[in-house]
Amino acid sequence: MLSLKHIPALLRRRKNLHHLRFAVQAAFALFCLYCGYLFYLFYRWALGGSESYVARPPSVEAFLPISALVSLKRLVLTGVYDPIHPAGLTIFIAAILIGLFFRKGLCGWICPVGFTSNLVERLGLKMKTIRRAPKWLDWPLLSLKYLLLGFFVYLIVLKMDLAAIEAFNRTPYNLVVDAKMLLFFIEPGRLTLWVMGFLVAISFISRNFWCRYLCPYGALLGLLALAGPTRIRRDKELCIDCHKCEKVCPGAIRVAAKESVNSPECLGCLECVSACPVDDCLTVSAYGRKRLPTLTLPLGVLALFFLLWGWAQWSGHWHSEVPLDLLKNHYQKSRFLEHP
Ligand code: SF4
Ligand code: SF4
Ligand code: SF4
């Protein structure tokens, strides 16, 4: 009979890594949906549409990475931890640390957008609609997310001085930016619906279109991962050239042609390791040399994420310090507030 003591052995089986990843991603996605629902109830209460108060879940700030980048610059310049969206900053710092040590582990194991994209990709693979973009198209498209990242880095890291950051932080828009994000999802405009429809449709043809070509957050994590230690290593003596690793790789990486994968597209998802039919052919390594236990990647990602979360809870950097009355007041105007 299966008992708790069998779990480590089950997790060590290569094929189960795929199921482990699915379970972790699904758990985070369900949690995000639950937080989104709580946030909607809070928003309704703030607008007077409901009598019953539901606490605002701080985790929704994970969807405010631009605000988090502004806060990170302020933290570096002044040592002040953002009191308005502290959870957003905490999650952003966790993502950066994960990127530095465990590749794009946030994308591979946690991000619900990545999970949704992976689901569409799997459906596309089953329906045989997925195609690999030719290099002449792939390379220019790949540059788009770096251009977007460069735009935000220029605007926030280079151009925005402390006075501008402080002024932005005090704007009513900054207080309600989470409510604006909620409105974006629950009351999407016609253009939003068209764009989302396009992204879903094209993801059936081009795997992970949004993540691969357009997401600046993923671009940042991919660049950080280039400097990190963890890599997938291929033992070319053991490899039988079956290319199963490449068929399942969500980063569309030519795994079978490399000895050590250190691509900014590598999510550290272990799908290649799980699919490889040869024992010890694909392994997790430090700098492509020293072999590490396979579970180092997911356990490292989750440990860093929850460590930062626990620290933020303990140190009072998780819940917003904005008084409820003030937030309620501004939420009522959120529909009409525009970016300053
Ligand atoms: S690339 Fe962006 S959207 Fe995709 S999984 Fe990574 S952070 Fe999420
Ligand atoms: S190389 Fe392996 S770990 Fe990296 S993205 Fe591809 S399947 Fe995932
Ligand atoms: S799946 Fe394993 S054996 Fe097959 S090509 Fe990839 S690394 Fe080689």
Based on Cα principal axes, name the global outline. globular
Number of domains: 1
Task: Let me know the average pLDDT.
Answer: 93
Distance linking N and C termini: 62 Å
- Helical stretch tally: 17
Rg over CA atoms, rounded to whole Å, is 21 Å
Poorly predicted sequence stretches spanning 5 or more consecutive residues: none
Strand order across the largest sheet: 2-1-3-4
List each distinct ligand once. iron/sulfur cluster
Q: How many beta-strand runs? A: 4
Helix and strand pattern: HHHHHHHHHHHHHEHEHEEHH
Structural class by helix and strand composition: mainly alpha
The description of the largest β-sheet is: 4 strands, antiparallel
Residue share in helices? 55-70%
Describe the model.
It is a single chain. The chain has helices spanning 7-12, 14-46, 65-78, 86-101, 105-110, 112-126, 135-159, 162-170, 172-175, 177-186, 190-203, 209-214, 216-227, 244-248, 271-275, 296-315, 324-331; strands at residues 230-234, 260-261, 282-286, 290-292. The protein has one domain. The model has no long low-confidence stretch (mean pLDDT 93). It has 17 helices and 4 strands. It has a 4-stranded antiparallel sheet, with no helix packed on it. Helix 3 crosses helix 4 (86-101) and helix 7 (135-159) crosses helix 13 (216-227). The protein is globular, with a radius of gyration of 21 Å. A hairpin with a 3-residue loop joins strand 3 (282-286) and strand 4 (290-292). The chain has 340 residues and is mainly alpha-helical. Bound molecules: iron/sulfur cluster (3 copies).
